[in-house]
């Protein structure tokens, strides 16, 4: 979509990060991470059945092979990446400010990182 907005074809050799910087769009992974962490804060503060279901142990043996990556695994990675491992989701103000900081952790580069695209 960013290429379509800027009128640049995929064959032009312009890197996607440069287009995001030109349009002022934050990095996609950072915004996804912030969304997941916001939802995790809601789940942790919930008093309904969703909180008890998310912490429920499932009986039985696992199947063979590597298990699929779960939502809780993604949250653990996000908490580690953002340095929010010690932040309590029950403290709403601290949690919101931590999530806001996490969406700005990976700034989109404003200069081109592709030398071939800079020549054009």
Task: Give your account of this protein's structure.
The structure is a single chain. The protein has 120 residues and is mainly α. It has a domain at 29-55 and 69-109. The protein is 53% helix and 0% strand. It is built from 7 helices and no strands. The protein has helices spanning 2-6, 16-23, 28-45, 49-54, 71-82, 92-102, 115-118. Helix 3 (28-45) crosses helix 5. 12% of the residues are buried.
Distinctive features:
single chain; 120 residues; mainly alpha; 7 helices; 0% strand; extended; disordered C terminus
Number of E-state strands = 0
State the share of residues found in helices, binned by percent: 40-55%
Based on Cα principal axes, name the global outline.
Answer: extended
Provide the β-strand percentage band.
under 5%
Question: Spans of 5+ residues with little confidence (pLDDT < 50)?
Answer: 106-110, 115-120
> Over all CA atoms, what is the radius of gyration?
19 Å
Q: Can you write the helix and strand succession as a string?
A: HHHHHHH
Mean pLDDT: 80
Report the sheet with the most strands, covering strand number, pairing sense and barrel closure.
none
> Helical region count?
7
Termini Cα gap? 21 Å
The assigned structural class equals mainly alpha
Summed up:
The protein is 53% helix and 0% strand.
Walk me through the topology:
Elements lengths: L1 H5 L9 H8 L4 H18 L3 H6 L16 H12 L9 H11 L12 H4 L2
Helix pairs in contact: 3-5, 3-6
């Amino acid at each position: 979509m960013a290429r379509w907005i800027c009128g640049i074809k995929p064959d032009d050799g312009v890197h996607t990060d440069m287009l995001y910087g030109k349009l002022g769009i934050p990095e996609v992974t950072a915004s996804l991470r912030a969304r997941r962490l916001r939802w995790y804060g809601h789940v942790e503060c919930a008093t309904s059945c969703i909180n008890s279901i998310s912490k429920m142990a499932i009986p039985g043996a696992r199947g063979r092979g590597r298990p699929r990556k779960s939502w809780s695994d993604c949250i653990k990675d996000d908490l580690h990446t953002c340095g929010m491992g010690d932040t309590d989701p029950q403290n709403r103000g601290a949690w919101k400010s931590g999530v806001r900081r996490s969406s700005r952790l990976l700034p989109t580069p404003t200069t081109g990182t592709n030398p071939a695209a800079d020549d054009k």
